[in-house]
Amino acid sequence: MNHASSTESPVLRLGILGCANIARQFVRDVADSPAVQVVAAASRRLDSAVAFAAAQGIARAHGSYEALLPDGAVDAIYLPLPNSLHAEWAIRAAEAGKHVLCEKPLALGRAQAERMFEAAARHGVRLLEAYPYAFQPQTSAMLGLLAQGVLGEVRTVQACFGFTVQGSGNIRLQPELGGGALLDAGSYALSLIRSVMGCAPQRVRADASWAEGGVDISTSATLFYADGRRAQLSCAMDTANHRHATVAGSLGTLETEYLNHTADAPADNPWGYLPSQLRLRRGVANSIAFETLSCPSGSGFRFAAEAFAQALAHGDDALFERARQGSLDNMATLEALALSARVERAVSLDGL
Predict the structure, then answer these.
(1) Which among 186, 253, 334, 346 could disulfide-bond with 235, CB atoms 3.0 to 4.6 Å apart, if both were Cys?
(2) Are residues 81 and 173 in the same domain?
(3) What are 50-88's pLDDT values in tens digits?
(4) Residue 1 pLDDT greater than 70, yes or no
(5) Of 104, 172, 281, 302, which is the active-site residue?
(6) Are residues 53 and 103 in the same domain?
(7) Residues 21 and 120 in one domain
(8) CA–CA gap between residue 109 and residue 306 (Å, rounded)
(9) 6 has pLDDT over 60
């Protein structure tokens, strides 16, 4: 696996709030990074934190999330807690003077996200939403092609993501924890759509199927833009795994799987990471063959953490501002999509 890194910048010392599987995967994938080091972990129980830290080779363990925040050995927090806890702990981390790399979706709505960014600004720290796929070299290559005008004028985007969730205890099936297909899988598809379109839609129309617990088990939607463009999104938690996006412009087409974590070949990675497709058709005819584009591969967790560390080290205000606006647009759009699915009609983002 190839990773971008900067040995010239100081190592960013990270603390992790929570010891769930995603935290374990994150620690594993950044273990060899020269740019970041996980130095502390916290759980709601000290014995859990101690066991997690020992298993992962982390120096410090805290028996509560509160106890980690004033830890002077920690520069920034990685926040992989359930969706419903992101706002509270991002704000508390900011108040403690810690930068925050927060798992997606950033919040449960735009107002909540605005409070998180306001807290970060007030306390002089940075907040970044961590979609692992977004920091993949493949995503940078895709956006670079769009910026170069290779597709001409982008007219439409279709993005889907689905998988199977089993077990009633899964947090994705619990509405009080911010569960549901839209917030989990749909947030990925929407993030890609927003990155390609460059702005939030004007209005949306969503339809959902509902699980017994009250969360959406699948959602499909159309997004309408002020300039007449449209995008389509679908997400599900009751299907075989699928993840794909098509970007169609006036002069060409891009197709991508936009995977979080990638490998050069199926057998290359012990964690099951796979190659991620990126194909380009230069032209409008179906007789033109797609080109398969190759990019450096690796863990999206590591790419995201290293990008965060380097942006902090170099004071990259432009990156953080672009990410902030994208996150706020995504939160407003997710809110509108959820409302549209509930009321079964189109919803304008201006009316929220």
Answers:
(1) 186
(2) no
(3) 999 999 999 999 999 999 999 999 999 999 999 999 999
(4) no
(5) 104
(6) yes
(7) yes
(8) 27
(9) no
Is the same domain home to 152 and 257? yes
Q: Is 313 inside a domain boundary?
A: no
Q: Are residues 19 and 108 in the same domain?
A: yes
3-state secondary structure 136-196: CHHHHHHHHHHHCCCCCCEEEEEEEEEEECCCCCCHHHCHHHCCCHHHHHHHHHHHHHHHH
Question: What would the DSSP string read from start to end of 218-248?
Answer: EEEEEEE-TTS-EEEEEEESEEEEEEEEEEE
pTM of the model: 0.95
Query: Cβ(108)–Cβ(83) under 8 Å?
Result: yes
**What secondary structure letter does DSSP report for 289?**
P
Provide the 3-class DSSP secondary structure of residue 259: coil
Angle between helices 300-314 and 317-343 (to 10 degrees): 130
104 is catalytic: yes
The CATH number of residue 215's host domain is: 3.30.360.10
Calculate ∠ Cα 72-74-78, nearest 5°.
Answer: 150
Give CA–CA dist 84/183, Å, rounded.
Answer: 11
The Cα angle at residue 224 between residues 223 and 229, in degrees rounded to 5: 110
Cα 125 to Cα 120: distance, rounded to the nearest angstrom: 5
132, 150, 179: which is the final residue of a domain?
132
- The number of distinct structural domains making up the chain is 2
Do 124 and 139 fall within a single domain?
Answer: no
- pLDDT tens track for 124-170: 999 999 999 999 999 999 999 999 999 999 999 999 999 999 877 78
Whole-number Å distance between alpha carbons of 249 and 251: 5
Residue 191 token pair:
């993030």
What are the structure tokens assigned to 81, written together?
């807690």
Check which CATH number belongs to the domain holding 65 and give it: 3.40.50.720
Residue 321 is assigned to a structural domain of this protein = no
Last residue within a domain, chosen from 90, 112, 132: 132
Residues spanned by the domain of 82 = 12-132
Note whether residue 6 is domain-resident: no
